[in-house]
């Protein structure tokens, strides 16, 4: 029996590492498991720790340098493999995890997710299934949850160098579109703010005429109270002038009427009238 080829051993070890261990922490994959836009697998807590610890310059951090926020990864919805025993029999700690069988399978055709078959996930929902299921059962909705997806949403897991290059170009185009979309939204928001400010500074005719009932009532009350003294003073002046005019008119009328003998002032009583004494020279 010939010895196994070293290249084959290395390939198998690489497949085991890719499909069972986190790309960042090199620890075994535990739920929640996430994948990036280039199709690499991570433990979610490792990604969060990586994003929080910006000062760390780890060699493994270069593999996740394209992850700028938690939004750049998708939490995967994986289907467990019922044939995988895992560490169920490892009660004493003297057994290794079952790495010969895959922990997860395709929910559509039942293929194991161990690197021997191409698998992919959808960015829109996170469901994972084999590429064979995607090709054999062509649909515009997810085979697992029914969510609608496009070709850009399909990400190959642990693909070849060519796959990674295609995914990288798609990722850059996607982020550029999102960046341009934000820039176009900002001027629109600024315009809406400026319009609202202008409308507030220059109210329309309806706003100028109509106000709050409390304010209008207060204004009318103030106007009435302010106008009341003015009206009273004006009324006093006019009444004084009228009284003077009436007195003057009465005096003028009395003087005019006294010229006539029929007026009461022209008639005098006997006591008031003087006695006329006539004398002649021949009486003496």
TrEMBL record:
<dbReference type="GO" id="GO:0005634">
    <property type="term" value="C:nucleus"/>
</dbReference>
<feature type="compositionally biased region" description="Basic residues">
    <location>
        <begin position="178"/>
        <end position="187"/>
    </location>
</feature>
<comment type="similarity">
    <text>Belongs to the rtf2 family.</text>
</comment>
<comment type="subunit">
    <text>Interacts with DDI2; probably also interacts with DDI1.</text>
</comment>
<dbReference type="InterPro" id="IPR027799">
    <property type="entry name" value="Rtf2_RING-finger"/>
</dbReference>
<comment type="function">
    <text>Replication termination factor which is a component of the elongating replisome. Required for ATR pathway signaling upon DNA damage and has a positive activity during DNA replication. Might function to facilitate fork pausing at replication fork barriers like the rDNA. May be globally required to stimulate ATR signaling after the fork stalls or encounters a lesion. Interacts with nascent DNA.</text>
</comment>
<dbReference type="GO" id="GO:0006274">
    <property type="term" value="P:DNA replication termination"/>
</dbReference>
<dbReference type="InterPro" id="IPR006735">
    <property type="entry name" value="Rtf2"/>
</dbReference>
<feature type="compositionally biased region" description="Basic and acidic residues">
    <location>
        <begin position="211"/>
        <end position="225"/>
    </location>
</feature>
<protein>
    <recommendedName>
        <fullName>Replication termination factor 2</fullName>
    </recommendedName>
</protein>
<dbReference type="Pfam" id="PF04641">
    <property type="entry name" value="Rtf2"/>
</dbReference>
<feature type="region of interest" description="Disordered">
    <location>
        <begin position="178"/>
        <end position="284"/>
    </location>
</feature>
């Amino acid at each position: 029996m010939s010895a196994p080829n070293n290249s084959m051993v290395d390939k198998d070890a690489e497949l085991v590492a890719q499909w069972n261990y986190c790309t960042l922490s090199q620890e075994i994959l535990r739920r929640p498991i996430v994948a990036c836009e280039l199709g690499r697998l991570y433990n979610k807590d490792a990604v969060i720790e990586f994003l929080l610890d910006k000062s760390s310059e780890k060699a493994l951090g270069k593999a996740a340098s394209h992850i700028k926020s938690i939004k750049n990864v998708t939490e995967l919805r994986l289907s467990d493999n019922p044939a995988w025993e895992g560490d169920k029999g490892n009660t004493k700690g003297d057994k290794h995890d079952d790495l010969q069988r895959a922990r997860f399978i395709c929910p559509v055709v039942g293929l194991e997710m161990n690197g021997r078959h191409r698998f992919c996930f959808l960015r829109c929902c996170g469901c994972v299934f084999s590429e064979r299921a995607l090709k054999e059962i062509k649909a515009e909705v997810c085979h697992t949850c029914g969510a609608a997806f496009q070709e850009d949403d399909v990400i190959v897991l642990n693909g070849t160098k060519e796959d990674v290059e295609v995914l990288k170009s798609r990722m850059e185009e996607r982020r550029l579109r999102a960046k341009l979309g934000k820039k176009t939204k900002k001027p629109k928001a600024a315009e809406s703010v400026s319009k609202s400010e202008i409308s507030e500074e220059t109210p329309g005719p309806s706003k100028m005429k109509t106000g709050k009932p409390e304010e209008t009532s207060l204004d009318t009350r103030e106007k009435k109270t302010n106008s009341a003294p003015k009206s009273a003073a004006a009324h006093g002046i006019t009444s004084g002038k009228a009284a003077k005019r009436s007195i003057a008119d009465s005096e003028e009328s009395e003087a005019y009427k006294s010229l006539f003998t029929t007026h009461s002032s022209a008639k005098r009583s006997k006591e008031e009238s003087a006695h006329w004494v006539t004398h002649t020279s021949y009486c003496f």
